[in-house]
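Final report, section 2: Outcomes. Of the targets proposed, Glycosyltransferase involved in cell wall biosynthesis is the one most frequently requested by collaborating groups, and we therefore present its record in full.
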Amino acid sequence: MSRRRRTIAVIAPLRHPIREPHAGGLEAMVWDRVRMLRARGHRVLLCAVEGSQFLEDGPAEFRLPAVVWPDERDATDSTFPPGHLERALPALEAALDFIRRHRDTIDLVDNHSLHPQPLTWAGRLGVPVVTTLHTPPLPRLVAAARSAQHHGKLLAVSAHTAAEWREHGVEARVMPNAVDADRWRLGPGGRDLVWFGRIVPEKGVHVAVQAARLTGRRLRIAGRVGDVAYFQEHIRPFLGRGVDYLGPLGQPELADLVGSSACALVTPLWPEPFGLVIAEALATGTPVAAFDTGGVGEVAGTAPAVRLVPMGDAEALARAAGQLASGCHRDRRRTRAEALARFSLDRRAAELETIFDQAGADAWV
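The predicted structure is given below as tokens.
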């Protein structure tokens, strides 16, 4: 384990604050990253949008403008309000320039931005940059990532994601996301099904609703509405008819919800880069019925508490969820232990510090 204490600039995405309740898995992962690095003695400066936790210890240049929609009914996770990027990108430039000017006191940049700007600056910061690829190879990121791999290290959240980027000439080491065992505790289970995450079309919660109705079990939904029109058309009509929407929950409440459920439904309708909700559910002992797409199979591994079915197949999902919820997999403690053996935040912290040690090297060891 590395014991070198560093000053690390963590760059978050431009869209949502890094705070609870988390806007999504990416924001939860960055929040955990900052807490974990600080707990291990590192000085961490977070560059994130206004309203984020942890900003009080950083320079003013690291406070990026918040996303404000003139009409919340127009809010989506795939676009920005008019004029927002015209404010946000110069602010991000100022933060990167701060890093360049203070390169003698900042040891490393840990980049999680979904915008190419930090990647294009990697060669002129004078500081090693470790970038995590959280998405498929988005066209706006590919060229910048190709260049940045010569000035730092690139990580991918799954082998599936790494393979997608490799097809575009970008090499990345696999570094899966992790779960804080102290916060995602063992739960007692229950009768209801649960779905949690960002409520957007590609996450497929409407298919979870269909599957739950086929099982005859109540479905409890938790998460932030990332596409208002989608929620109003595909989810709201079913509320109160065996479906409850609990809103976005803070992590302790969310862990309690998931841990008191019979089975979690995970329903991505796109090539999911990772699937953090699977690891989180398993950490509470709750089994998972999920669509087999993208990196989902890697997170599931060989866990007997996970059943994978073809993407979009509500009937197959209902059968898998019904079997798991009926008690064919009862050993919740074993489920949790197996999940933490693979996705423990403490274990990942030591691996990450080793990568930070290697960040200035020419090749992986």
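The chain has a mean pLDDT of 93.
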